[in-house]
Amino acid sequence: MIIANWKANGGFTSNIAWHKELTQIFSNDEFLDIGIAPSHIHFTQIQKIFEDSNLEVGLQDIDFSGGARTGSISASMASDAGCTFSLLGHSERRHLFNEDDALIKTKIKAALSNGIKPILCIGESEECLKARKTRDFLKNQLISALSGIELIDKVVIAYEPIWAIGTGNTPTPKDINSIHEFIKDVVQSSSANNIEPKVIYGGSVSHENAEGFFGEINIDGALIGGASLKANSFADIVKIYRKVKRK
């Protein structure tokens, strides 16, 4: 799956232009395995302008509960609005909003109980990488978030090394493939029903490097940030994904 994470970007006029450009490249029946996570305020607009396609529209975050939680979007509210997936535990949420593994686990449970596919984001810092503690760190994130939970077979892990996000620096495709294999093994052994997840990669993915990533067996897609803000760049990555994965 290829997911566009628009973060705090987009506008009602520019979103229409983005949609127009993308639908000139892909017909409505060619949006399978594509998802967009717009801002909360643009969710309904994106849902409406893509309503005749099979594109998935999700949210960048959800809350585990409703009620007296000003500014929050609960999992049940998101489900009621037709949200199909949600990013959870993105490094920016962890860093800027102090979200910890315990909170993220409650969000995953809430998503699953409301029929929303969780996209669990994990990734290590540059300091962790240099200390050669990447695998220990990722294992702790995974077990803390998923242990004891019965997962649906559509659960997705997004591996985004923090040091690669928006920097242009990326691990090699073979290194990412090895980490993804490790992630699948950890999730399968720690989840209640031994599900092997899909694992996608995020971190400075572009049309220039996408083919190298998608050629690896354990890289099942990508979470695209900056490169998704231009429809033609995003479309190029989708085309490469399909060319490589459908050989």
Annotation keywords:
four-stranded parallel sheet; 40% helix; single chain; 247 residues; alpha/beta; TIM Barrel
How would you describe what is shown here?
It is globular, with a radius of gyration of 17 Å. Helix 5 crosses helix 7 and helix 7 (134-146) packs parallel to helix 8 (173-190). The protein is 40% helix and 13% strand. The protein contains ten helices and eight strands. It has a single domain (2-8, 56-227), classed as TIM Barrel, CATH 3.20.20. The two termini are 16 Å apart. The relative contact order is 0.14. It is of the alpha/beta class and 247 residues long.
Briefly summarize what is shown:
The chain has 247 residues and is α/β, with parallel strands linked by helices. The chain has helices spanning 12-23, 43-49, 75-80, 91-96, 101-113, 126-130, 134-146, 173-190, 210-214, 231-245; strands spanning 2-5, 34-37, 56-57, 85-88, 117-122, 156-159, 198-201, 222-224. The protein is 40% helix and 13% strand.
